[in-house]
Amino acid sequence: MNAPFPSTTQNPSTSDPRVPLQLLIAAPRGFCAGVDRAIEIVERALEKYGAPVYVRHEIVHNRYVVDSLKAKGAIFVEELDEVPDDVPVVFSAHGVPKSVPAEADRRKLLYVDATCPLVSKVHRQAERQIEKGQHILFIGHEGHPEVIGTMGQVPEGRITLVETVEDVATLPFSQEDDLSYLTQTTLSVDDTADIIEALEARYPQIVAPKAEDICYATSNRQAAVKIIAPKCDLVLVIGAPNSSNSLRLVEVAERLGTDARLIQRADEIEPEWLEGVGTMGLTAGASAPEKLVREVVDRLSEWRLVQEEPIAAAEENMVFKLPRQLTD
């Protein structure tokens, strides 16, 4: 059982439904344009080619989304060698190393690439930096699919992963080396700024990308949490434990001194969490559908009188085109 959180307000009881719970709901939250596009790609592939359609890796990091697509006929696998020769396969929104589509071409597989266009932009930048003879310092989290995909865009030995400020001090390069940097799209804005500052201090010659790599959706969701967290006793973040952007939202709240919890579904919430909580924040990572937000509101309403207040940090209207093979 989870321990109650300390209170910064009077001590509301969970047993009295008349006691109001101020619920600050962050905006933007939930699905971003890249996630919308990736899910629609799988759905359209199922409509066009029929079930089953294989998907290499989770299309996005959300169990509810994955299970919904499974029910429609999608089959999720981790590697291409698990895909039969006579069925279509979709590559996830996180992107894949160049070796994956090359192997698909060799096997003459029908494949659809659902890589987020903002991740693809980083891939293209990596190729250009290599063409200029630069060694890439890539800021990201080891083992994340996006990192594996981006590092797999360039020849081995031409890119080095940097995870922390401390890593910068151990890099084996000098100020004579031709260096550039790129970043994973779903990182902490503040952490990444610190790492970039350390890189530029040690390597004044390092070349920055033409535009920030952290995607608009990641930045906007973190900005919204920065607004609501100082006003809250507790922040709930809806997202998967393997979702980088969702984990960063938890970290943002905690760094502002507010308790935060990552949940996947409303049924994970315990009534004890509301002890001493007068104001709660609620947001969702970029892979979490709005349906899960409403589930959380409904569950909280079982115990308290919920007073919703939307808090907006930005307005999003980004839309990405679908692959031509699914629209012809």
TrEMBL record:
Family of this protein: Belongs to the IspH family.
Name of the protein described by the UniProt record: 4-hydroxy-3-methylbut-2-enyl diphosphate reductase
Entry keyword set: 4Fe-4S, Iron, Iron-sulfur, Isoprene biosynthesis, Metal-binding, Oxidoreductase
Positions with a binding annotation for [4Fe-4S] cluster: C32, C116, C215
Catalytic activity: isopentenyl diphosphate + 2 oxidized [2Fe-2S]-[ferredoxin] + H2O = (2E)-4-hydroxy-3-methylbut-2-enyl diphosphate + 2 reduced [2Fe-2S]-[ferredoxin] + 2 H(+); dimethylallyl diphosphate + 2 oxidized [2Fe-2S]-[ferredoxin] + H2O = (2E)-4-hydroxy-3-methylbut-2-enyl diphosphate + 2 reduced [2Fe-2S]-[ferredoxin] + 2 H(+)
Cofactor requirement: [4Fe-4S] cluster
A Pfam family the protein falls into: LYTB
EC number: 1.17.7.4
Gene Ontology molecular function, alphabetical: 4-hydroxy-3-methylbut-2-enyl diphosphate reductase activity
Entry keyword Zinc: no
Residues the entry annotates as binding (2E)-4-hydroxy-3-methylbut-2-enyl diphosphate: H61, H94, H144, T185, S243, S244, N245, S287
Pathway assignment: Isoprenoid biosynthesis; isopentenyl diphosphate biosynthesis via DXP pathway; isopentenyl diphosphate from 1-deoxy-D-xylulose 5-phosphate: step 6/6; Isoprenoid biosynthesis; dimethylallyl diphosphate biosynthesis; dimethylallyl diphosphate from (2E)-4-hydroxy-3-methylbutenyl diphosphate: step 1/1
Functional description taken from the UniProt entry: Catalyzes the conversion of 1-hydroxy-2-methyl-2-(E)-butenyl 4-diphosphate (HMBPP) into a mixture of isopentenyl diphosphate (IPP) and dimethylallyl diphosphate (DMAPP). Acts in the terminal step of the DOXP/MEP pathway for isoprenoid precursor biosynthesis.
Residues making up the signal peptide according to the UniProt record: none
Cofactor note: Binds 1 [4Fe-4S] cluster per subunit.
UniProt binding sites for isopentenyl diphosphate: H61, H94, H144, S243, S244, N245, S287
